[in-house]
Each structure stands twice: as structure tokens, then as C-alpha cells.
């Protein structure tokens, strides 16, 4: 009779399962992206792009893209608080009505709680 040892039960780790708090939050946000949505199936955020004398965009959007000193970037709904100086670029605001492209010479972008404010000509 051979003496066979039984191994301790092994924990099976799902490769797709989040392994850190940040990954868990990203997975939760992705799941909410599919369930909490507006009338066309996407999350949105409030975006206002304005200068002292003109408002270029004011409404809901799915994303906004621009350039800063480190390069191009995108802001999506549920983005962390963020503030940046903008370089000369073309801001692209994506909404239900399509893409709104705004040529800018620079500005400041402030993101907080699904609200994006872009100040131009400051």
C-alpha cells in the first residue's frame, strides 16, 4: 500500500478576475457603463467649452479629446479629477449629435464629477 499525500485545496484564480482594488474599480465602471446609460446606450458627461466672449460647446458628451504638454489624451465619463493646460490643438467633443471639432490656441481643462470645463483664451 503506497502512502499518498493529498495536497491542500488549491485556489483557482480566474485570469479575468481583478487582482487589485484599481482593477476591481475599472471592472465595476465598465459594467456600469453598460447598465447606467442615456437614451443611446452610452454614459455621458457635461462639457462646456468657452472663452470670455463665446461659448463653443455646452451640453452632454461621450468623450472629449485634446493635447497637453505630454501629448494627446481623452476624457471619458467617470474620469478622475483632472486639470491641465492645453496646447494648440483641435479639441474633439463626441456627442449624440456627432463630433464637434474646435481649433484652439491653448486653454485650461478642468474635470470633476462628470463635468468638464474648458476655458479658452485665458
Overall description:
With 122 residues, the protein is mostly beta strands. The chain has a domain at 45-120: F0F1 ATP synthase delta/epsilon subunit, N-terminal (ATP Synthase, domain 1, Sandwich), CATH 2.60.15. 12% of the residues lie in helices and 47% in strands. The protein contains 1 helix and 9 strands; from the N terminus they run αβββββββββ. It has one helix at residues 21-35; strands at residues 45-51, 54-61, 63-68, 71-75, 82-86, 89-95, 98-104, 107-112, 115-120. The strands form 2 sheets. It has a 5-stranded mixed sheet, with no helix packed on it. The longest helix is centred in the first third of the chain and has 15 residues, at 21-35. It is elongated, with a radius of gyration of 22 Å.
Layout of SSEs?
Elements: H1 21-35, E1 45-51, E2 54-61, E3 63-68, E4 71-75, E5 82-86, E6 89-95, E7 98-104, E8 107-112, E9 115-120
Parallel strand pairs: 1-9
Antiparallel strand pairs: 1-2, 3-4, 3-6, 5-8, 6-7, 8-9
